[in-house]
């Protein structure tokens, strides 16, 4: 059988595919471990280094626009809401989203998908002029050439967390999109120390922009149906051309792998964040397929257009974003 090199993050709901418990018809799977998996994104986009690779959704959309020889399978391995991803510097005086206008906000790279989602929420829900913000970054975009003029690169080696603690930026994203990591996601990329949180007033340290983030994220989902995507599976286009059934086979195997995980842990107790999100969305916390994710895909395309990452005529029909295949909601 043909071999498929596969680079995915460490997801229990995909493990059965990786370890051979669920086969991909006609193929042997060879896992390529890249930790953190973010380090595989640019290797796939720039060099087509793997046969199958998880990608950030925004990077995938931008790659399609640039005619990178990739095609997608509508499997979204990771999801999260984002109202809790912005923290403000102690003494910044930021109390409401509009206070971010004219400020300096840290994000690992401008096109990271977390940044796209948060800017979309800030602009669409709270009327924030995100173009008035100076975005301070410490890493390169996976696809270059779309960075606007209001982006500033850290040049002295300090992390976004250090800048936030020093008050040299007014706010920043948390986790891998900001203060939880430093620099490019290379091998051995280690977590930076997140700035210690202060009280509600921010007198003692950084504080969240939204104190009740889980409630706001849930409310936003109920009103909009948008459930932010954070990974998509991409395949080298030449392999799909040689075997048009490959996307369907991959989809079926990944769906079956998830079914096994759910059968083993139906409440997602071993993955608490997904367990919380299952309660928020009232069902599957990682739905696969195009139709089940149409609202989220449409929103991501819309936000990416509004932020200048995609051209205005980039296709908005979510079915056009993926290889032809049989993708029942799963």
Structure description:
By secondary structure, this protein is an alpha/beta fold. The chain has 2 domains: 173 residues, 3-Layer(aba) Sandwich (D-Maltodextrin-Binding Protein, domain 2); 139 residues, no CATH class. 31% of the residues lie in helices and 13% in strands. It is built from 10 helices and 11 strands. The strands form 2 sheets. It has a 6-stranded mixed sheet. β6, α4 and β7 form a beta-alpha-beta unit. α4 packs across α10. The longest helix is centred in the C-terminal third of the chain and has 19 residues. It is globular, with a radius of gyration of 20 Å. It starts with a strand and ends in a 24-residue tail after the last helix. The mean pLDDT is 93.
Topology:
Elements: E1 2-7, H1 15-18, E2 27-31, H2 38-47, E3 52-55, H3 57-65, E4 70-73, E5 86-88, E6 104-106, H4 113-126, E7 134-137, E8 151-153, H5 160-165, E9 171-173, E10 207-208, H6 213-224, E11 232-236, H7 237-242, H8 246-264, H9 272-281, H10 294-306
Parallel strand pairs: 1-2, 1-3, 6-7, 6-9, 7-8
Antiparallel strand pairs: 3-11, 4-11, 5-9, 5-10
